[in-house]
Structures are given as C-alpha cells and as structure tokens.
Amino acid sequence: MTSSAVDPLRLAAERRRYFLALFAALAVALHAAEFLLPSPAPWFRLGIANILALTALFLYDGRAAWSVNLTRILVGALLLGTFLSPRFAMSLAGGVAATALMVGSRRLLGDRLSPVGVSVIAAAGHTFGQFVIARWLLIQHAGLWHLLPFFLLLAVITGIGNGFAADWLIRQLRKHPAFASPVCKGAA
Length: 188
Fold this sequence. Notes:
Elements: H1 8-36, H2 50-59, H3 62-80, H4 86-109, H5 115-138, H6 148-174, H7 177-180, H8 183-186
Helix pairs in contact: 1-2, 1-3, 2-3, 2-4, 2-6, 3-4, 4-5, 5-6
C-alpha cells in the first residue's frame, strides 16, 4: 500500500479496506475454531467472532460491522460445509438480528453505550433471531419458547465477555497510528 501523504482520504480508504479484510478473515478463523470446540450447551456457541464485528463498528461504522458479520457467516458456512443448511439459516438470522441491533443501538445511543452494552444487546438479538428460525424451520412447537430465558441468560453472559474483549481490542487498536487519525472514520 503506497499512497501519497498528500492524499489522506485515499490512504484512509485503503487502510479501511485492509483492516476490514483482516477483521473478516480473523472472524472467519474464530468462527471455524469455535465450530470445532465442544459447545457449553446444545445449540449454543460463545460467539467470539462477534468481537471483530464490534471492533469494526466502534472503529469505523455500521457498514463495516455488516461487512465483517455477513462475510464471516457466508465464508464460514462455505468453509465448514453448512451453507444452505438449517445451521446456516440460524446463523444468518442470528447474525442479521445481532448486527441490526448492534448498529441501531450504536446510532441511537452513540458513545453513551460501551462495547459491553452493545455486545449484550447483540447477543440477545442473536439468540432471539435463532429462536425465530428454529421455531419456523426445526421445532414447530410452542414449548421451544420455554428455553428462551435460559439461552438469553447464556447470551448475556457471553455478550459481557465478548464486549470486554472487544473493548480491550478497540483500546489497543486506537493506540495504533492507523486508527488515531480522525480521517479513518470518514473513509468509505
């Protein structure tokens, strides 16, 4: 990446592309690694790949978070062989709900909501999105909703953990010169 110091907007746009590609690749790797680990409860994952979407949201904007999450879901499904399966549908529904709530809460509340708060909201949205798809596609019984409070509790716990991890990562990256410039937010 060679760019003139005269053109800071072009440099910021290139940096944004490179960092978002890195965030997406890391999210896919974390998604695949988590897929291989045993889950703490049936149908439940820790969601550590969402740390990168949160980081993209706080360092850039909502569009960046959508890019990271949708890339992670699609590439992860292709890599793991779950594309167009019920697992993929649940992951996509949860990811879309989580990202929409993440971006919406960030736009609505701005800096009044920390990465931990945004992460908890996203985790709850992810769980609810998955339950809607599970009810629609897999378990067509109203008793499924009795499991929702248990899974929401797990989601809040993992959301807090992922939020603290994202907060730490965001603070570390903001020390880097590439993120210190106010131009990095405005580059598209």
